[in-house]
């Protein structure tokens, strides 16, 4: 190794280290560039994107009506069996018997959020909710019944 | 007690090899992977990978699922390029059904795939730097990756596993903000990319740690089927986007990054340059997304005609091949995924022999292994 | 020398006089030693805890994070909480480990760093012991720590620990040379090894200015080599988190691990204090030649503040090293020492000798 290449290697190496130090040093003296979000404190302002897949929900309107007819297509399309439909026969106003939803059971613990149930629902009854704080101490709490107590089928949905 | 000590001392210093387990829990295996490493002092004598710790039987599970349902499993193979994996299955199904998707779908798929590639390479970059002892780059890369993930979250609803593709198109249309956000991201990323170069690429310690380490020749890369950036670092021109263009890759101008050195640094440079190349692809497409439907009309139950279907795509780690054998039912008879990481893993022993332990870690970092992709 | 406002010598002497007046000489000496020992133990622990906090904050700011911020204001009591946790943790007994050596190792490490800590001059008169071979003593004692590291790695009966310990041995033996030579360079200039005298000599300008080029080279070598000697990144091969999980202290837990951890930070403090003393005048305020007015203003800032500012600035540089650079490989580490640092520092000793002989210093 010649002296010239020895020294040039030394100085080039040293310079490259200084360049790196300049970057980290500038970050230290510019705390405004910190990107950390303080999660539990910012809960109020934290807003997820509208399409965020937090959980599957059955959309209810203000009259406690939903659009689920209990057809079971979501159950069929779900790759993991996280949806169970328990249906009942109901007599309508016109006296005809028809299938209706009794319980729309959703196992959040098994769901992979692939979106097939929401996409395949013929009456657009399902949607994704933005709730993401799903931690519970009891696994049974993750088995949810999506249709609310006393809810009925929206009028005009077949 | 004393005897054990003598034994340990002898094993370490003379005669016998020192055999250590790297993994299944080790800070630098990036997952549940076990390497049984034989050492002579600091020098690695052989590396024996033991995979299968997180084998989930994805191929077998696919046999009982319909084609749209397979998508959510392919997400979980190479979870860092989830979108590209999905695309492979969708392209195979579309090919089988002779469906030509609209340009809009192709463009959006390509843009998201390239963003996915950048996100994946950023994670690789950060974890490789961390393997080599520099922790700070990790946070810089994650900060920038977060911006891509936000774009994804807004459009697809997922941050890591998107399930955005479906046979015949996409699950949703792009979000109205999508184009704006992507266009904001490109200059931002170019700026922070300069910082990456200053911090790591030019660093003399980093260069000495990677240059000339883990040499993989072109012949060996071809023989072992090492594709993707690891193969292209050895001069093996294997970019599927160039060789067999799919989606919108035939409509854009981009270079296939090739380095002939075959060492860790070449593999590193390939990925770094690829990120810039991906930016170029996105720039060409983002303003020209044609109008149209985001999903083609498909039958409610997709049944592929009897036969074998084959589709290759370029994931962030190399060539992913989907081979579907259909017997005409709504579920496939057999699905085979040729995952890039398994072939890449097979050269681990070859290229890390007679290197130091520290090099073994750096080589592992430069190969960019994703363990769920190996085990599936 | 210009009037030093904050001189602790008188205070210390008067305390000593009070003790000696009220009891026999023997008891006074014993009592003084005990008090000083306790004070030093407390200061040692407090500085150590603060340094751990400071390091976490510095690295967080570099990494665009906030760092500890939950325990106390700005997370100030985080390390105290950690310390309590470490105290309460189980001392794991390793199967087939050599019990005696395994337990002894952390004590050797912490004693070595504590001994060096005793010679650090905080201000005029505030120094545990002012040896006339202070520089030599620090050099000699600080290299004892490696014995603890080697024993710890050896006795753990773990392969990772063993590799880490062996690396550490090779590393410290090599880098001791450069640290020594760069200090020798400065001793040629100062003509004394007594730390208090070295500081006194800098009352009209720090040695980094007085010794100009050779002193600067010596400073750079000292910073690199001492970073390596205290096993900090980018020279943390003995720990090498991504390679050896935690190196020599893989098997340690609880308070024994805390000893290793604390001594690492205190070694950093001692090294920075030594560099500050030898190159930047220790507690001596910034004096420029014959600018009386300027020197006088500087004198108003208490020396202990000067000392702390200087050593913390140097510690920041050492922290910056760790959080910027990738780790070296073992052969590169030795190459850096034997091929670059050692020849350069040998040349530098010659240069300094020449400069001193020709009286080219200020």
Short précis:
The complex is a heterotrimer of chains A (158), B (376) and C (362). Chain A is α+β, with helices and mostly antiparallel strands.
The structural class of chain C is: mainly alpha
Please indicate the count of domains of chain B: 1
Radius of gyration of chain C: 21 Å
Order of helices and strands of chain C: HHHHHHHHHHHHHHH
Tell me the number of strands of chain B: 8
Description:
The complex is a heterotrimer of chains A (158), B (376) and C (362). Helix content of chain A is 23%, strand content 22%. Chain A has 158 residues and is α+β, with helices and mostly antiparallel strands. In chain A, the strands form three sheets. In chain A, strands 3-4-6 form a three-stranded antiparallel sheet, with no helix packed on it. In chain A, β3 and β4 form a beta hairpin. The mean pLDDT of chain A is 83. With 376 residues, chain B is of the alpha+beta class. Chain B has a single domain (58-375), classed as Cytochrome-c3 Hydrogenase, chain B (Orthogonal Bundle), CATH 1.10.645. Chain B is 50% helix and 12% strand. Chain B is built from 16 helices and eight strands. With 362 residues, chain C is mainly alpha-helical. Chain C has one domain (95-358). Chain C has 15 helices and no strands. In chain C, α2 (25-62) packs across α3, α10 runs antiparallel to α12 and α10 runs antiparallel to α15. Classes of the chains: A alpha+beta (158), B alpha+beta (376), C mainly alpha (362). The B-C interface holds B 1, 4-5, 8, 12, 18, 20, 26-28, 39, 42, 129-136, 138-140, 143, 199-200, 203, 205-206, 208-209, 356-359, 361 and C 59, 62-65, 96, 98, 157, 159-160, 162-163, 166-167, 233-234, 236-237, 240-245, 323-332.
């Amino acid at each position: 190794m010649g002296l010239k290449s020895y020294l040039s290697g030394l100085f080039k190496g040293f310079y490259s280290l200084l360049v790196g130090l300049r970057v980290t040093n500038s970050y230290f003296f510019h705390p405004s560039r910190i990107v950390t979000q303080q999660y539990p404190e910012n809960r109020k302002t934290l807003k997820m994107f509208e399409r965020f897949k937090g959980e599957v929900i059955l959309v209810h309107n203000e009259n406690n009506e939903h659009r689920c007819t209990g057809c079971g297509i979501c159950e069929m399309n779900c790759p993991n069996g996280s949806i169970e439909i328990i249906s009942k026969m109901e007599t309508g106003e016109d006296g005809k018997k028809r299938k209706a939803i009794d319980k729309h059971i959703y196992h959040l613990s098994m769901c992979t959020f692939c979106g097939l149930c929401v996409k395949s629902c013929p009456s657009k009854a399902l949607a994704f909710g933005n709730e993401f704080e799903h931690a519970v101490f009891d696994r049974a709490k993750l088995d949810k019944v999506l249709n609310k107590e006393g809810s009925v089928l929206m009028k005009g949905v077949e | 007690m004393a005897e054990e000590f003598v034994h340990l001392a002898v094993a370490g210093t003379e005669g016998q090899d020192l055999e250590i387990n790297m993994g299944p829990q080790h800070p630098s295996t990036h997952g549940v992977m076990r390497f049984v490493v034989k050492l002579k002092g600091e020098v690695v004598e052989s590396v024996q990978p033991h995979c299968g710790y997180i084998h989930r039987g994805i191929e077998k599970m696919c046999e009982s699922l319909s084609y749209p349902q397979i998508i959510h499993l392919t997400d979980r193979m190479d979870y860092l390029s989830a979108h590209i994996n999905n695309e492979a299955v969708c392209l195979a199904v579309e090919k089988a059904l002779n469906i030509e998707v609209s340009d809009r779908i192709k463009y959006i798929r390509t843009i998201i795939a390239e963003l996915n590639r950048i996100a994946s390479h950023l994670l690789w970059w950060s974890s490789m730097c961390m393997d080599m002892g520099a922790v700070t780059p990790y946070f810089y890369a994650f900060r920038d990756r977060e911006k891509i993930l936000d774009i994804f979250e807004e459009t697809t609803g997922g941050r890591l596993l998107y399930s955005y593709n479906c046979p015949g198109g996409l699950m949703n249309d792009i979000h109205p903000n999508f184009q704006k956000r992507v266009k904001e991201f490109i200059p931002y990323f170019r700026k922070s990319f300069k910082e990456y170069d200053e911090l790591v690429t030019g660093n003399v310690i980093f260069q000495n740690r990677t240059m000339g380490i883990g040499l993989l020749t072109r012949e060996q890369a071809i023989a072992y089927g090492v594709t993707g950036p690891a193969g292209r670092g050895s001069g093996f021109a294997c970019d599927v986007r160039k060789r067999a263009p799919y989606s919108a890759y035939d409509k854009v101008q981009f270079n296939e990054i090739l380095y002939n050195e075959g060492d860790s640094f070449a593999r590193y440079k390939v990925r770094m340059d690829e990120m810039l190349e991906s930016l170029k692809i996105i720039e060409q497409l983002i303003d020209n997304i044609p109008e149209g439907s985001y999903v083609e009309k498909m039958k409610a139950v997709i049944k592929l005609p009897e036969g074998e279907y084959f589709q290759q795509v370029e994931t962030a780690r190399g060539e992913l091949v989907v081979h579907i054998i259909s017997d005409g039912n709504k579920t496939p008879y057999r699905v085979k995924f040729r995952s890039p990481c398994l072939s890449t893993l097979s050269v681990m022993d070859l290229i890390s022999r007679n290197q130091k332990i520290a090099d073994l870690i750096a080589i592992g970092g430069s190969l960019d292994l994703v363990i769920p992709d190996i085990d599936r | 020398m210009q009037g030093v406002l904050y001189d602790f010598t008188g205070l210390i002497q008067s305390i000593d006089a009070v003790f000696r007046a009220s009891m026999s000489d023997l008891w006074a000496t014993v009592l003084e030693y005990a008090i000083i020992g306790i004070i030093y133990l407390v200061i040692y622990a407090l500085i150590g805890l603060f340094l751990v906090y400071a390091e976490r904050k510095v690295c967080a700011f570099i990494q665009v994070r906030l760092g500890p911020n939950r325990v106390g204001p700005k997370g100030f009591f985080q390390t105290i909480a950690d310390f309590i946790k470490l105290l309460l943790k189980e001392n794991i007994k390793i199967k087939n480990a050599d019990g005696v050596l395994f337990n002894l190792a952390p004590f050797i490490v912490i004693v070595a760093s504590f001994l060096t800590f005793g010679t650090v001059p905080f201000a005029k008169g505030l120094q545990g012991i002012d040896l006339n071979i202070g520089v030599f003593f620090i050099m000699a004692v600080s290299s004892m720590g490696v014995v603890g590291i080697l024993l710890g790695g050896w006795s753990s009966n773990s392969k990772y620990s063993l590799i880490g310990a062996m690396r550490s041995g090779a590393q410290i033996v090599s880098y001791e040379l450069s640290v020594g030579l760069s200090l020798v360079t400065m001793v040629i200039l100062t003509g004394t090894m007594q730390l208090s005298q070295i500081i006194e000599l800098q009352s009209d300008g720090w040695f980094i200015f007085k010794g100009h080029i050779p002193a600067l080279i010596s400073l750079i070598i000292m910073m690199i080599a001492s970073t390596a000697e205290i096993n900090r990144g980018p020279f943390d091969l003995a720990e090498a988190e991504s390679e050896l999980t935690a190196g020599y202290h893989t098997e340690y837990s609880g308070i024994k691990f805390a000893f290793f951890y604390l001594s690492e930070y205190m070694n950093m403090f001692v090294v920075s204090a030594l560099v500050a003393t030898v190159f930047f005048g220790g507690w001596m305020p910034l004096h420029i030649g014959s600018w009386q007015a300027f020197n006088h203003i500087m004198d108003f800032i208490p020396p202990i503040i000067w000392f702390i500012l200087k050593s913390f600035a140097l510690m920041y540089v050492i922290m910056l090293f760790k959080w910027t650079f990738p780790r070296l490989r073992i052969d590169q580490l030795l190459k850096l020492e034997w091929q670059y640092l050692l020849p350069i520092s040998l040349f530098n000793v010659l240069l300094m000798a020449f400069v001193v002989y020709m009286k080219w210093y200020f």
